[in-house]
Structures are given as C-alpha cells and as structure tokens.
Design goal:
heterodimer, A: alpha+beta, globular, B: alpha+beta, 7-stranded antiparallel sheet, 5-stranded mixed β-barrel, 17 strands
Chain lengths: 397, 325
C-alpha cells in the first residue's frame, strides 16, 4: 500500500472486555478487526472490517484501491503483566459496600498491531481495569490502588452536588483537577489537526509566543505509570515520548499524528491514537501534566473572600472557547474551603483564562479518574497537576 | 431450556467527504453478535465476533453466561414472525450542487454517510426474524460571519436519499451573535434529541414513543406501544408525534453546546438561528411541553444521537428569559 500514498498503514485490533457489577448484566465482549488506511496529498481512503476472512479483507483492500501482497510476518508482541481478576473483584465489592451505590468493574485486554510496510510491524498488548459509578469513571490502573475509602468517598461526593455560586469568581483548581483544566485550555488547542484547520485558541500565534504567566509549564506525558492515557507505542506504530506544550508560559509544541507531522514538518511522538478499529487516527493527548510551581497551596487560597474550588470537572473546548462543568467542589470563603458545591460551569475564552492564571502550587497530584476525551471516538487520557489559582473567571449555572 | 436471544448484526457504512484540502472515502463493515441469556430473573450478555465460528462461540458461551447471570428483568423474548423491514437502497445526490449555490453558504466541508444494517434474531425456540434497514446522513460544516467557528449538523433520512438542503444551509451560514432577552423559546429537534439522549429530561422522557413513526413493529415483531421499553437490547429509535404548533417567534435553539443538570432546572447553552443563548428549563415544564400537541411542531425531523435515531418535532418551551453566551 505504501507506494501510492504518503502515509499508509494496516492496523489490527483484538479486544476482550469483562464487565461486572453496575446496573446492567454481567457482560463479556470480544471483538477483532482490521483497518487499512492510505493518505495521499489530495485524497484519503480508509476501510475497516470485522470480517477477517479472505473475502472480507479483499473487500477492504479494494475499497482503498490496494492489492494483497505477501502476508506480513507477525512481529514480537510487547506485553504487559497479566491482571489478576480476583483482587479486582474484591476491590469492586469493597468500594461498592462503602459507597452504597452501584459500581461496575471493567477488565480490558487489548492487542494491537500496526504494519507500515512489509517487515515493518509493531505489536503490543495492554491490560487495564476501570471502576465506574453512574457519575463516571472513578479509578483505573494497571496495578491495584490502596485507597478504597478515598474512592468510595469520591463516588458518594459525586452523587450529591449542591448548587454552586455564579458570577465572576476567583477559581482555584485542586491538584489533579488542574490537569483536566489544562487538557481543555491548552491540550486541544495544540492538537495539530486543530492548528491546521484554524480551530485553535492559538490560531495566529507562533511557537515561543507568550500565552500564560511564566510559572506555567504543561507536558503531554506518555508514561503508563502516570495515567490512563499512558502508552509505549501509539496506534500508528510511533514510539511515544513526552511533548512539552507550554514551557514557562510560552507555546512550545504541537501534538502530531503521522499525517499532520508530514504536512507541517513536525515530529510524531506517539500522539496518533485510534479510538477503535472504526476510527481513523488523530492527534490525541495522553497524560496532560502541569509542572509544579513555586507556591504553597494554602497560600493560593489566602485573600479569596468568595471563590470556587474545583475538585472534579469535565469539559470541552472549541474555537478558542472552553467550558469546564464542575461535578464536585467547595466554596471558598475568607481564604478557607467551605461547603461542598457543584452543578456550575466555568466558561470563557481560552486566552483570557490563561492570562488570568495567578499562581501555580507545588503540590502536583494525579486526577484519580480517567479523563474521557471524545474528539473522534472516546479515548482515555490522564491528568496530573498542582493547585492552580485564576483571577475571576465567569462561573455560570 | 435456558432462554436465550441471539442478535447478529452486519452493518455496512460508506462515507464520502470533501473539503478544501481534498476528498476522503471510508468503508466499514461491522459484524457483531449479541447473546443474551436468562435464568429465571437473572441474566447475562456476551458480545462476540459474528464470524464463521459463531455457532461454536455461542455454544461455548451459553453455559458460562448462565453461570454468571445476575439479577435483572430482561423482559420476554418471544419472536413473532413478520415480513422483513426492507428500505430501498439508492441515493439521489443530483440536487446538492444546486442547493449549495442557492443557499450561498460558507460551507467548509460536506460529507454523506450511507448505512445498511442487516439484523438477524434467533431465540432458544428456533424462531427467527430478519430485517434490513438503510439510512443516509448528511453532515455540513459551515462558518458563521462573526468570527464564529465552523460547526456541524447532521440530518438523517428514513430512506437513503439526500434531503432538501436549503433550510439547513441557511441556518449553517447565519450570523452567530450573543443574544439576551425574554419571550417564547423553542427547542428544535436536534437540540431536543441531545437533551433526551443525555437522560437529564427525567419524566419528560416518558412522552417518547419507541420506533420510527411509520414502523409498527420492533425487531422482535411486537407491536410498538406508547412508553414501551425493550430491555433485551438497545433501542435504535425513538419518536415523539408531531403536534399542531405553527412556526413562531423567538429563538429556536438548534444545537446544544452545554447541558448541566443537577436536580433542579436543566441549564442549557445552545445555538439559535440568530445567536448563542443560555436558558434554564424546569424538567416539569419540559414534560408538559412534550406531552402537549399544541406545543409540538407540525413536522418531524430525524436526528441520530448516541446510537439512537430520534424522530422529533420542534417544541415550544414557553416564555422565559435567556442570556447571552
């Protein structure tokens, strides 16, 4: 395939998923499929199929205008340690008992392989688990967490948000939640496909331009130990490496897949992710990590007469605007955390919000739950960050 | 005999797209089998590849699923014989270019998606039912003239043919200004579908009828009933009957960009014909609006959201105040 196209690959995926608990029935899901892709200068062709018979693969090949060649040799599989289901089921029971609401456990095994040319293949196997309540994912990992009480408390808190304050308020993001905020404020705007289409908050800016105070450094980190978005190799077969997005308040890098890297002359560092065999690859985040700043987190609350402290949030950003829906947080009164609040949304223009950053704490921590990113099919990403304080932002009901 | 229901689906999709950078073509073929097994009021599910080994896979899965079944109420699975639902498979794209020229829209990209779904249902008694369905969806991305971004709409059709585009493209090209004010507000079908799909409409969802307006039976061959729920597999369509409400004044919210619900009013932010607005809707008011034929529009629009095809009219939410985005 590679000869006719600037970028071409064959992607194979096989998944097994077991889901227990929650409100639905126990479910086992087995799937496998293949995707063929060819991108030329003015045209792109993509075909995927679950039918791996010779006839099914023949139809897919014809759809992209390619012919079958010699079967590629299957590469050695880069494997992860198997997951033991028994302690995970025990964890599910413990969390469910403490939280008092339905919680489900999913155990996922995914085998993937990418072939760019005959003899040039990469294959790997990932295993992850995910605990979910109706309010969303609550924990994930490749090992076992130890904080059952913390997980249960997070689920219980997520179920009962009280109405929050509105208006222009000083907003402080808790450690972990700050990573989610930067996913929306910085991450999406620096995905190279958005930059190419002009649908980026930083349209018209250049690398090196100052967009935030110098305390802010944001990195997209692929380390699997740092969150749900971690990976060694992306879904285009590119080795993963960290990408500095904002360095000392200045734009520092874009997230590329192979196509945008070829078009813009960039370097693909493992951000080409496919949500499934049905989805074409696109530049996506892995684990957005905000570097530690100089401030004591307690000091960042001082002097705030009335503000909002965000502990759990999810959101979107598009064309220079963003919204972060607050699922759990606290009111800040007279420089101290007060009653729990939720059900509000922090909204505004990305550039204005970044300029309003007042302080970065030194207390970097992970966001406990995976960040579901739904740009082109759902992928899981992670978030890390310290306490972040912003000058008054618009908070709406 | 352990009751079981096997649903085998083959879904073929074609997608053609064009924008200023070039053209794209995608072809997809999904083959999936869903096996539900019931043991008394306990049940379990397996989703398996629908390949040549399906029979062996099902035979292996049946006892395993029965062993791990959990409490629930999967409903009755008796298949009834019935003629296959078969929609014609053709696409009429002849009017596109003309419609685009007439609308003079700032269209950024166009895509058309055609889907064919072949479904086969078999139960433990050996009863069988098969259906074939087709659909066409059109995606338009167009730019507004106030520095607003490109956005997308989708419009499905019951048969695979391209719908009239003029009204759609006029909306796509309309200016987007922040609006504030008071008066009657309407929700257009795409926004209503988004709201219903998020499951935040509470009792308002009870007004939905399952199924396409013209479709009298579900995949199991059962007559459709108001408020009926199919629990053995996901509903693929839901509809709300047309009413008598004529087109009127006030903002009509076409698409929602944010939905926030937390027990009280549902807070919405969306795009109306002439601008971008935020409103708060009481779930009880919404339920009343959906239940009243006088507050529902005279025609239905099909909208695919979250794997369900919604066929909905415009709905009058009544007088309220709205604020600018």
């Amino acid at each position: 395939m590679a000869g006719r196209f600037a970028v071409a690959d064959v992607f194979f995926e096989a998944t097994r998923r077991l889901r227990l608990g929650g409100e639905g029935p126990p479910e086992v899901r087995v799937a496998r499929g293949v995707q063929l892709r060819g991108v030329a200068q003015r045209s792109a062709r993509l075909a995927w199929t679950h039918d791996l018979s010779a006839a099914g693969l023949g139809r897919a090949l014809a759809a992209v205008g390619a012919r079958a060649g010699a079967a590629p040799r299957w590469p050695a599989v880069r494997d992860e340690a198997p997951l033991d289901a028994a302690p995970l089921v025990a964890l599910l029971r413990a969390v469910r008992r403490r939280a008092g609401v339905p919680v489900s456990l999913s155990i996922l095994e995914r085998r993937r392989a990418v072939f760019r040319a005959p003899g040039e293949g990469v294959a790997w196997r990932e295993r992850t688990w995910l605990l979910e309540a109706a309010s969303g994912g609550v924990s994930f990992g490749r090992g076992l967490p130890v904080d059952v009480a913390g997980l249960a408390a997070a689920i219980a808190a997520a179920d009962a948000p009280a109405a929050g304050p509105c208006g222009r308020l000083t907003v402080v993001f808790a450690p972990g939640a700050s990573g989610v905020a930067m996913h929306e404020l910085v991450g999406h705007a620096l995905e190279a496909d958005h930059a190419l289409s002009g649908d980026s908050a930083f349209a018209g800016r250049a690398m090196g331009d100052e967009v935030a105070p110098g305390e802010l450094t944001v990195v997209d980190d692929p380390d699997p130990a740092r969150g749900a978005g971690g990976l060694h190799v992306d879904d285009e077969g590119c080795a993963a490496g960290p990408v500095v997005l904002v360095d000392g308040g200045r734009l520092a890098g874009l997230l590329h897949d192979r196509v945008t890297a070829a078009v813009m002359g960039g370097r693909a560092r493992g951000n080409g992710r496919r949500a499934s065999v049905r989805h074409e690859p696109a530049p996506r985040m892995r684990n957005v990590t905000v570097a530690a700043g100089p401030h004591d987190p307690g000091a960042l609350l001082s002097g705030i007469r009335d503000g909002l402290y965000v502990e759990r949030a999810s959101g979107w950003s598009r064309g220079g605007r963003f919204a972060l829906d607050v699922h759990a947080g606290r009111r800040i009164r007279a420089g101290a955390l007060a009653e729990p609040v939720g059900g509000v949304s922090v909204q505004g223009a990305v550039l204005e919000a970044l300029a309003a950053l007042e302080g970065v704490g030194r207390d970097v921590a992970p966001c406990l739950e995976p960040v579901r990113c739904g740009k082109r099919g759902d992928v899981l990403t992670g978030a890390w960050g310290p306490t972040l304080r912003f000058a008054p932002l618009e908070v709406v009901a | 005999v352990t009751p079981w229901l096997l649903r085998v689906e083959r879904r073929l999709t074609w997608r053609l797209e064009a924008d200023e950078t070039g053209t794209g073509r995608q072809v997809g073929e999904a083959r999936e089998a869903t096996l539900d097994v019931r043991r008394g009021r306990r049940w379990a599910r397996a989703v398996l590849p629908a390949d040549e080994a399906l029979e062996a896979r099902v035979a292996a899965a049946l006892p395993a699923l029965a062993a791990v079944a959990s409490p629930g109420a999967p409903g009755r699975w008796r298949l009834r014989p019935g003629a296959a639902v078969d929609w014609p498979d053709r696409v009429d794209a002849g009017g596109w270019a003309k419609a685009l020229r007439r609308a003079r829209a700032a269209v950024v990209s166009l895509a058309v998606e055609i889907e064919r779904v072949e479904t086969s249902l078999t139960d433990a008694r050996g009863a069988r039912r098969e259906t074939v369905r087709h659909g066409t969806r059109l995606h338009v991305v167009a730019a507004g003239d106030e520095g607003c971004q490109a956005f997308a709409l989708s419009l499905p059709t019951p048969a695979p043919r391209v719908p009239p585009l003029d009204a759609l493209l006029r909306f796509a090209a309309a200016p987007r200004r922040p609006l504030a004010g008071g008066g009657p507000v309407r929700l257009a079908a795409p926004a209503l579908a988004q709201l219903l799909d998020r499951g935040v409409a509470g009792p308002a969802s009870a007004a939905l009828l399952p199924g396409r307006p013209g479709e009298r039976v579900d995949d199991l061959g059962r007559p459709r009933r108001a408020g009926g729920r199919f629990v053995t597999f996901r509903e693929r369509a839901a509809h709300l009957p047309a009413g008598t409400l004529p087109p009127g004044e006030g903002p009509c919210v076409r698409r929602l960009d944010a939905i926030v619900a937390g027990g009280g009013p549902i807070r919405l932010a969306g795009v109306a014909e002439a601008g971008v607005v935020r409103i708060a809707v009481d779930p009880e008011d919404l339920r009343a609006a959906l239940a009243s034929p006088a507050r529902r529009g005279v025609s239905l629009e099909g909208v695919p959201v979250g794997g369900v095809d919604y066929f909905l009219p415009e709905v009058d939410l009544g007088a309220m105040s709205w604020t600018a985005w």
